[in-house]
Design brief:
Length: about 425
């Protein structure tokens, strides 16, 4: 006899939902989702997205014209190499050598490059390729690291190093070396320039990080997506920053560089990113990628080669630094005048990290500030999202509870409008 039991569905947990894990929102995605409840749509000029993680993508003074067409060839309809075409990998290697390795005896080749459909996929491949190791990272840092690391917790043991305002929300080389030795780290990941603070490790300090990684045999993963957004005080810097400048041997140094067209060339929708490092690592990435994704788009890769043509690339990034330096200065000046403490002084990215605790109540509460700004059609990102905490194992209040990330990614007129609205918000609170 077969006993049949009828189970009535409940409203509390659907069959589909019960099969899924709890996936946290990335900071910007959550912000946009909340804004959409109030009518926000990308591209709406009446909204000011000071939370956005992409640079303005239209025409820019002094930059080459935006590419508007992509030609297809018959072979584009077939699968391409999972790690990118030989042609684009060669162009990326030449691009890095030209900018950062002039006169070096050891140069990057196509074998040192792996292309992926965007930076997050490139990073996901990297974390999937790591073996059983202790992985260090700093707080605050890029929000997406949290779930990428958490997904590999069966192999990776994450070790957080929580930084503070007094030290510019950054580790110095001595602290990095102590971390590697004391915690027996096999790898360390950080964004440089840092998202969300805009701090850049460069010059002798960056050289020391690379040297320590080499001497201590620690795989140093440098997420360099904002490498060309560089400022010297209130002026644009002369050029980009990369750990590639300090690598001695591209095949032996345990240095991995992650970059792409998304930020510095203002083509985020193309989803073109790359990883550079020893060819053995790149080969491993290809094998990991074959189980994760099918490789990047062939026609978009061909177009990417046009963007990296030396004269065009330099024209674009020079114009970018000039334009974004002006926006940086405006944002820092206006926020500081409102009583928002910016720390550290941003030397890279298109972000400023601000402490709002001195604002009049109730705006000195980040959640209230976020909601009130949204009501005025201004998006920002609460700092707690940059408290990278895989598996949420680190308890207690977030050390970033009073902080907000502000973006100067939007065009200048829209940025000014957003800052005007924040000024009105604060003035109204002051009565």
């Amino acid at each position: 006899m077969i006993l049949r039991v009828n189970i009535e569905p409940t409203d509390t947990l659907s069959p589909t939902r019960s099969a899924l894990r709890e996936v946290p929102f990335m900071g910007v995605i959550w912000v946009v989702a909340e804004a959409m409840k109030l009518g926000f749509r990308n591209g709406d000029p009446d909204w000011c997205n000071l939370g956005q993680g992409q640079p303005e993508v239209g025409e820019l003074e002094g930059a080459p014209p935006r590419l508007t067409t992509i030609e297809l060839e018959p072979q584009d309809h077939a699968y391409g190499p999972v790690g990118g075409s030989e042609e684009l990998c060669s162009v990326v290697a030449a691009h890095q050598n030209r900018l950062f390795r002039e006169g070096a005896s050891s140069l990057y080749t196509a074998a040192n490059v792996s292309v992926a459909s965007g930076g997050r996929l490139a990073l996901s491949r990297l974390f999937a390729a790591l073996g059983s190791t202790r992985l260090g990272y700093q707080v605050p840092d890029y929000t997406a690291y949290e779930d990428m690391i958490a997904a590999q917790r069966h192999r990776i043991e994450p070790i957080a190093f929580v930084t503070d305002e007094e030290h510019g929300f950054a580790l110095d080389p001595d602290a990095f070396e102590r971390a590697v030795c004391d915690e027996k780290l096999g790898a360390f990941v950080l964004s440089n320039p840092c998202n969300p603070t805009g701090h850049t490790i460069r010059g002798d300090e960056l050289a020391a990080w690379v040297r320590i990684a080499r001497e201590r045999d620690c795989l140093l993963i440098l997420d360099e997506f904002y490498s060309h957004f560089q400022y010297d005080g209130d002026a644009p810097a002369a050029g980009p920053v990369s750990g590639a400048s300090h690598v001695v041997d591209v095949e032996r140094d345990p240095i991995v560089l992650v970059d792409g067209l998304t930020k510095s060339f203002r083509y985020p929708g193309w989803r073109v990113g790359w990883v550079m490092g020893p060819s053995e690592l790149v080969d491993t990435l290809g094998r990991a990628a074959s189980a994760i994704d099918g490789g990047p788009s062939m026609p978009v890769q061909r177009a990417a080669m046009q963007i990296l043509e030396p004269a065009r690339a330099d024209q674009e990034t020079d114009a970018l630094r000039r334009a974004f330096s002006k926006k940086r200065n405006l944002l820092v000046e206006r926020l500081s005048a409102l009583g928002i403490r910016i720390a550290p002084d941003p030397t890279g990215t298109f972000y400023a990290f601000g402490n709002i605790e001195a604002l009049p109540a109730p705006l000195n509460d980040v959640e209230v500030f976020f909601r009130r700004a949204l009501e005025r059609k201004v998006l920002t990102v609460p700092g707690r999202f940059f408290d990278v905490n895989p598996g949420k194992e680190r308890g207690g209040p977030s050390p970033l509870a009073n902080w907000v990330r502000f973006s100067f990614g939007p065009p200048m007129d829209n940025l000014r409008l957003g800052l005007d609205r924040l000024e009105e918000l604060v003035e109204d609170a002051r009565g």
